[in-house]
Every structure is written in C-alpha cells, then in structure tokens.
Design brief:
The structure holds two protein chains of two kinds. By secondary structure, chain A is mainly α. In chain A, α3 packs parallel to α6. Chain A has eleven helices and no strands. Helices cover 77% and strands 0% of the residues of chain A. Chain B has a domain of 172 residues: P-loop containing nucleotide triphosphate hydrolases (Rossmann fold, 3-Layer(aba) Sandwich). Chain B contains eleven helices and ten strands. In chain B, β7, α8 and β8 form a beta-alpha-beta unit. Classes of the chains: A mainly alpha, B alpha/beta. The interface between A and B is medium-sized, with 22 and 28 residues.
C-alpha cells in the first residue's frame, strides 16, 4: 500500500468512528431489555402496591385485597437458609481451590462446580425433592433452603476462588515471613484482602437464589398462612408470583406484578447496599 | 570502575569505628561457628528439577551486614530465602544440606519453620504492606496475626517505626492505610513490621530495587543503623549499594559461591577473575 500523506490517518479515523459507533449501538441493545423490563415491571406493579400488600395474608379465592406478608417473610427465611447452606461450603471450597487445589482433585472439584452451575434449577429441585421431601414425607422450608443453597454453591465457590487468586503472592509471603502459620495467613490476610470482591460475588448468588422459582415448587412448595416452622411448607415471592400469574383473577394478576416489583427492588437494594458497605470499607 | 576508596568514604571510616570485623574463613567449608550467626553447609536448593544452588558453604557474621551480589538468576535470592525457610513455600521447591542458626540446624525434622521465620525476618523486593490494615496495624501485624498479645502496643509501634526511621513522617497518621504512603515509606513500614517482631537476623531481598534514589539512600542509612544491633543479609544487584552498606560481600554466579570476603577487599582486590569481571562491569 502506498503511504500517501494523510490517507492512512483518515482511514484509521473512519475505522475508529465505525468501531466505536458499533460498540455504542451494541451497548444500547444490551441495555434496552433491562431498562424496558424494569420500566414495565414498575408500571404494572406500582398499582398493586399498598400497605396491606406488605402486612396482610392472602385472601381466600374470590375475595379481593389481601397481601403477601407471608411470602415476603418466607422468601427472607428461605434465602437465609440458602446462605447458611451454600456460603460456608462455597467459601471454604473456594479457599481450598485457590490455595491448595493445584492438583487433580482440585481440577475435579472445579469441573464439578462448573457443571453444577450449568444444571437447570428445576433439576436441583427434583434432586432435593427425592433427597429430602420424600424422606421427610412433606414439603418443608428446609428443603427449599437446601435447594437454593445448592444453586448458590457453584457461584460462591468459583467467585471466592477467582478473587482469592487475585490476591498477590507478595502478601502471602509477607505474612509467612512474619512467622504466621499458613492457615492464619490465609484467613487473616488473604481472605481479608479478597473480602470486598467476594462480598459482591455473594450478593450475586443471593440475588439469584432470591429469584428462583423452579426448585421451590417441589421443596418449600407454598403456604397461604403464616409459618415460621422450617419443617413445614413455606410461601415465597417467586412461587407466589407464579401461582398468582397463572390464575384467572385480575386482582391476583395485579398482586403478582406488585410482588415482581418488590422482588426486583429487593435484589437491587441488596446489591447497592453490598457495594456501599464494601466501598465504605475499602475507601478508608 | 574505580569506585572504592575515594568515592565511598563511609566504608573507610566505618570499618575503623565499628568493632573489628573478623575475617571470613579462608576455607569456607569449615568456618568457625562461634562468631557466626548463621551458616550454610553444602546447601543445595531446587525449583522442581532445576538446581538453583549447587552446594553453598557460607557463614554469616553476627551483627554485621553481609551483602550478596551477582547477576540475575545466580541464586542469591534463593539463598537468603533458604535462610528463613521461605524457599520451600514455592510449589515444587526443595532444599538439601544444612543451615545452622546459632549452631542449630533449621532444617531439622522437628523444627517448625514458623518459629524460624519469627527469629529470621525478611523484607522483600517490592514493598508489601497489608492493604487492609492501617500503618499501626501493619507494624503490629506480626504479633497480631500470630495471636500474641502485645503488652504496650503504642510503645512497640513507636519503637519499631523509630528504628525504621519512619516515625516522624507518620506519627500523626498512624490510623491511615499503609498503602497511602509513598513507595519508600511503604518499604520502611515493611522494615518496621519485620523489626517489631524483634528478629535476630533480617534478610533483605533487593529492598531498594523498586525505590527512587532518595528513598534508597534513606533505606541504606537505615541498614547502617540497624546493622549495629542485628545480623543482616542483603541481596542486591547494585554493586555500589553492596559497597556502601555491607561489611562482607559474597559473589554468587550460576548457583555457586565464587568469592566471599570483606567488602573492601572484595571490591579492591578480588581474588577470582570472575569476580573482577563482574565488579568491573564486564558482564552481568
């Protein structure tokens, strides 16, 4: 190619503008579904929100009004159970993989975690159904918590691993050279340094668990009444949304939209809060 | 290069003001142990299948500064990492032969490497303060991470930071994050952190190579001061630095100890032609 003065530069500028333009267009395409979904949920859901939505139990079929207080509390309990199941196992597995897992067993665990993260959530539900619901002979909140916990597991494990790997080796060496045993160095220096990132990963896992419906259908099932007992069926927002959305009643549809809005907002608030906490800790 | 004598007056004056350094043994395989803090006997170190140290015999004089020089990859860092059992931290790394600390083998089957590292401190090439800790916490890290209770933490912090010549610069901001300091200050913080454990030996692995000349001068000054009370082994690829700070100098090449002598003697009258070639800048 002959190098004319100015010509290659013009060409590069054109390529630059086109490439940048494409990126902007693709970005907009990627954001449109998210924003339109949010807008639609807000538009449909705001009308169903009221004080009684948050405080009252569902009304019997045929009566209008009532709320989803039990499903709100149920979702919180189920997600709490899921965290109790998924986080200790996932975080410790992640620590193992990052610090000690450079061997065949580690590779096997990593592979299993990756496969597990691809397993459809309904399959996890069926698995826990056979494992717990059939043996306990009833639907229970604890089974729901276990199912959600299993779903969280791969995300928690792999994010913990990735973020612990990002901690520079110089810090491990600094701790070891101070005569700190490896286990203490791992917990108090490495894990501590990776914590902000891990917290963000955990929030993503929690958000995912909070929105899952399928695994709860045959584990925690549903409940139209207040229940805090972990060995009884328990209501949850996603299942309640599902039940109401497929019903023939307009009032229930309205409530399903409101519940969807609350769920999205809760996940959003959780994420923002986690980021703020993490930011507050690191900015110091 | 004709840099001795005239250009480095310090090493002249100091050798007369200090207590008379005993000459390193002529026959390096049988150094007298009494005046030596540490001694390596036929020390061999591997990285996987690569032999990085090919049988080193070297004694490190008590309360003196010993410099280890040599071109990149000559095994000088590996050598000092063998002195506090930090070499074996690297996956696949292995050590053979003997290292004695006060006449006792540190690679004995019953010796806990963690104990050795508390007695033999280390400062690394890149400053590595703990990013999640304040300046104060960094200084106390050695004790705190080991779960030891510090009697008077404030006094210890002040003493260690004064020893590291950092106190005046940070005394009003001990609560600030260690990472907020400049590179040279961070390195002195790391030195304070190591000194706070009151080690008997301090190993320094190219402590100034990431620092600018002014910060380097400060750290060198510091090495002089603490070298009065403490045994120091410093790795450097800067020969002027070795000449400035050390009492003895060892020259390593391809995993072997080529020459070991009083610093003045090694730089003015090298016995081995390879040493001469290296210090006159013919290679390396």
């Amino acid at each position: 190619m002959k190098l004319l003065p100015g010509e290659p530069y013009l060409r590069r500028r054109v390529v630059d503008v086109v490439a940048r333009g494409l990126c902007v267009v693709m970005f907009v395409l990627a954001v449109v579904p998210l924003l339109s979904l949010l807008a639609y949920v807000v538009k449909q859901g705001v009308g169903g929100l009221s004080w009684s939505f948050f405080t009252e139990l569902p009304k019997p079929v045929g009566e209008t009004g009532g709320g989803m207080a039990n499903a709100l509390a149920g979702s919180a309990i189920l997600v709490g159970l899921a965290c109790a199941v998924g986080m200790p196992v996932g975080i410790m597995a992640g620590i193992y993989l990052a610090e000690f897992g450079k061997n065949r067993f580690g590779d096997a665990v990593r592979f299993c975690a990756d496969v597990l993260s691809g397993v459809p959530s309904i399959a996890v539900g069926v698995f826990v159904y056979t494992l717990m619901v059939l043996t306990m002979k009833r639907f229970s909140a604890i089974a729901g918590g276990v199912a959600l916990g299993i779903l969280m597991l791969p995300t928690v494990t792999r994010t913990t691993e990735e973020l612990i790997r990002l901690v520079p080796d110089t810090l491990r060496e600094a701790a070891l050279a101070l005569g700190v045993p490896k286990w203490r160095a791992t917990l108090r220096v490495v894990l501590r340094t990776a914590l902000p990132g891990i917290a963000t990963g955990l929030m993503l896992a929690v958000a995912r668990a909070a929105g899952e419906t399928a695994p709860l259908l045959f584990t925690a099932f549903n409940n139209r009444f207040w229940s805090a007992s972990l060995d009884k069926p328990m209501a949850s927002l996603p299942v309640q949304i599902f039940t109401y959305a497929v019903s023939p009643y307009d009032d229930w549809h309205r409530q399903a939209w409101a519940a969807a809005l609350v769920l999205v907002a809760a996940v959003l608030v959780l994420n923002v809060a986690a980021r703020l906490v993490v930011y507050g800790r690191t900015a110091r | 290069m004709m840099f001795m004598g005239a250009e480095w007056p310090r090493s002249e004056s100091s050798s007369s003001s200090r207590k008379e350094p005993m000459a390193p043994p002529e026959d390096q395989t049988t150094p007298p142990s009494s005046e030596h803090k540490m001694r390596a006997e036929n020390l061999r170190a591997w990285f996987g299948r690569t032999l990085a140290l090919k049988g080193i015999n070297l004694a490190i004089a008590d309360k003196q500064v010993t410099a280890i020089i040599g071109p990149s990859g000559c095994g000088k860092s590996t050598f000092i990492r063998c002195l506090n059992r930090m070499h074996e931290v690297i996956p696949g790394a292995r050590v053979e032969g003997k290292v004695l600390l006060d006449g006792k083998a540190i690679y004995g089957p019953t010796v806990d490497p963690v104990r050795i590292r508390r007695r033999v401190g280390m400062v690394f090439q890149k400053p590595n303060p703990f990013p999640t800790m304040s300046i104060r916490e960094n200084v106390l890290a050695g004790a705190r991470l080991n779960g030891l209770r510090v009697q008077e933490p404030e006094a210890l912090v002040e003493r260690a930071l004064k020893q590291a010549a950092l106190w005046d610069e940070v005394k009003d901001k001990l609560g600030q994050n260690g990472m907020s300091l400049s590179g040279g200050q961070q390195q002195r913080l790391c030195i304070a952190r190591a000194l706070a454990l009151e080690p008997e030996v301090l190993l320094m692995d190219e402590p100034c190579s990431a620092l600018d000349p002014i910060a380097t001068a400060r750290v060198e000054e510091l090495i002089h001061e603490i070298g009065e009370r403490l045994t120091i082994a410093i790795v450097t690829h800067n020969m002027q630095q070795a000449a400035r700070v050390s009492d003895f100098t060892a020259f390593f090449l391809m995993g072997e100890l080529v020459e070991y002598a009083e610093t003045d003697a090694l730089f003015t009258k090298p016995q081995d032609s390879r040493t001469e070639d290296y210090i006159t800048g013919r290679f390396g």
